[in-house]
Amino acid sequence: MKPQFPPERQQLAYFILGCCVLCPVALWGVDKPLALWLHEDAQGLQPFFEVLTNAVDKVYMTLFYSADLGGVPIGFVALFALFLLGRFLLKVPSAGVFLLVGLVLLNSGVATNLLKIYFQRPRPDAFLLHGMTGAGFWQATTLDYSFPSSHATLYFSLLLPVAWQFPKYRWPLLALPALITVGRLVLELHFLGDALASIGLVGLLTLLFSRLPLITPRTPFRLRRSFRKDFTA
Questions:
Q1: Which of 37, 51, 194, 225 is 20 to 30 A away from residue 27, measured at CA?
Q2: Which string of DSSP letters, residue by residue, matches 76-108?
Q3: Partners of 69 in beta bridges
Q4: Across-strand partners of 73?
Q5: Where do runs of H (alpha helix) occur along the chain?
Q6: What is the pLDDT of residues 170-199, one digit of tens each?
Q7: Which of 156, 147, 157 minimizes the C-alpha distance to 124?
Q8: CA distances for 71 relative to 66, 68, 75, 172, angstroms
Q9: What pTM value is reported for the model?
Q10: At what angle do helices 31-41 and 170-186 cross, to 10 degrees?
Q11: Residues near 149 by beta carbon (within 8 Å), at least 6 away in sequence
């Protein structure tokens, strides 16, 4: 009998696959015409997205970086404390989501910065002024790189793991990071391909770290093996 994967894990895997397929299409075929169209027809939306992004950024910075404990930002301390409290004191299995968010947030941020430095893709505003060939990799003339999107990475890291853990609330939870990501395109700070790469990266890290037993409690190996034998006998 073939092993059955949880439907949530399958859905997340398909989501990642979709981002991986669409990202190259956007990089080489959609990004430049979309950036031109947004520049010409979406200028009126920029004030709204600028106010929204600044407000959300301010809330995030207050919650995560308004203080620290031994040099660790208070937001990460709070996530770890909530994980310990829920997982070991209150015995709530889903409390692993706090650790999952912290791990995804930390690692996706590092990966995004490294990818930015490596690919050196110019932002849409630079493309509109100077142009670029192909996908634009290694063509930036400043240190302000576009690929992937730090904002998309940040806010999907905060909420995609929670949406994966609680599928009933998936779309309301993903509304904010999706809106912030659209705003990055409208504000001419990122291309669609940048956003898709960020979202795919966050999805991949969520899928990988969710395998940790502290995050997703599993039946002990011997019991699983015994159950499988009884079930397939």
A1: 51
A2: HHHHHHHHHIIIIIS--GGGHHHHHHHHHHHHH
A3: 72
A4: 68
A5: 7-25, 31-41, 46-65, 74-84, 96-119, 124-130, 150-165, 170-186, 192-209, 221-232
A6: 999 999 999 999 999 999 999 999 999 999
A7: 147
A8: 12, 5, 12, 33
A9: 0.88
A10: 80
A11: 112, 181, 184, 189, 190, 194, 195, 197, 198
Farthest CA pair distance, the chain: 68
Tokens of 148: 């992937």
User: By C-alpha distance, which of 199, 197, 201 is closest to 147?
Assistant: 197
Q: What is the mean pLDDT of the chain?
A: 88
Contacting residues for 84 by C-beta, under 8 A, at least 6 apart? none
Output phi, psi for 68, to 5 deg: -145, 165
Tokens of 22: 């669409």
Contact predicate 140/120, CB 8 Å:
yes
As given in the structure block, the two tokens for residue 15 are 């989501």
CA terminus-to-terminus distance, the chain? 10
Place of tokens 């950036």: 35
